[in-house]
Each structure stands twice: as structure tokens, then as C-alpha cells.
Here is the input.
Amino acid sequence: MQEAEYITMTGLQTLVLQACLFYASILGISYLSRMILDSFARWFKYKGWTLGPNIPADIKKCVVVAAPHTSNWDFVYSMAALHLFEAHVNYLAKKELFKFPMKWILENTGAISVERSKNSGMVESIIQKFNESEKLVLLIAGEGTRGKVDKWKSGLYHVAFGAQIPIMPAYLDYAKKEAGFGAPIYPDADKEKTADALRAFYLDKTAKFPDNFNPESIRF
Here is the structure.
């Protein structure tokens, strides 16, 4: 049974979320989200970043993997790029978090509830969500951490192959100051062929901290 990856919150992230909840209660979640994303977008442009290719318009369902991930700044530039692309991307969050007031935030930021128990058939559940949706763009972690890893998480491959949808490699290139998407990669039955294609794509992408990104870790 394959297990998907989750975003875990640090103490600082929890404080930020609490602050967001407070201001959301005053301003409304939609207004607050737009205000934050507009600020990210202004910073993105101020720092000289530009947009590369977007997800092709004819791709309605895909798994997005974002790399390299070596810094907290990746979140700011990624969210800014998605906002400027006007791309709606979903992400996974464990079912237990979908309680008030977290449910309010999660549902308005694209979270999809999944059962974390290994007995629940998590990958199969996500595949079913794709099969039931006319349009779904889902972000799944590859590296799973800002630190250097020896091997990527394999959940993104198993979901994409099981649902027969492409993997869209998203990137942040700090050397070029460019954010965008590569060409769609259609998963092969030989998972290492898929890994090879992803590795080839990310070989020339420069991370914020290059020593923490190892393209050779792109293996399933």
C-alpha cells in the first residue's frame, strides 16, 4: 500500500494560521486570500521574477510536482506564480483537520480531505477522486522536505499512473528567476522511465540552496 505525503505545520505556521483566522473573521476568507496573494505577486515582480510556460489549456486533470524545494521562499514564489497564472491547484490534507475553524480555511484554499490510515487505500481514494472529476489539478510532494533527500516520494507516480493522467513538473529556477511548468510527462508502466524523464527536466533548474537539491534523488 502506497502512502501519500502531507504538509505538517510548525509552531510558526500554526501562529500564522491563527492570525489568518482572526483577520478572516473580520475581512472574509476570499478577500484575505486575495490580499495575501496580491502581496506575493507584487514581491515576485519586484524581485525580478518572470513566468515561464503555464499548464496547457487542454489538460484538465494532472498531478503537479513542484521542485526544487530547499527554502521557505519557495512557498511565496510558488503561490505568487500560481496566482499570476490564475491556476487553481488542489492539495491533500488529512481528514481530521476538516473541523471548524480549520475546515473553513482548508475548503477555501483547495484542500482535499483524505483518510490517512494505511488501511483506507489512500492512493486508490485519490485515483477515484480523479476519475469522478471533470477537472482536477493536484499538487503532491516529491521531495517532501526542504533538506536534501536520497529518494523522492513515490505517491505522485502511483496516483498519476493509476488515474492515467500526466505529471506536470512545476519549477522555480533561482538562477533565471523564473517559475513555470514543463511539458506534461505521461507515466510509464516502468516507473523508473518516468523518474528518468523528471530527472532530465530538473537537471538544469537551480534551487535557492543548490547543495540541498539532488536530481539523482528523483527515483521511485
Notes: The first strand starts at residue 50 and ends at 51. Residues 29-46 form the longest helix (18 residues). Residues 1-9 have pLDDT under 50 and may be disordered. Residues 145 and 188 are 26 Å apart (CA to CA).
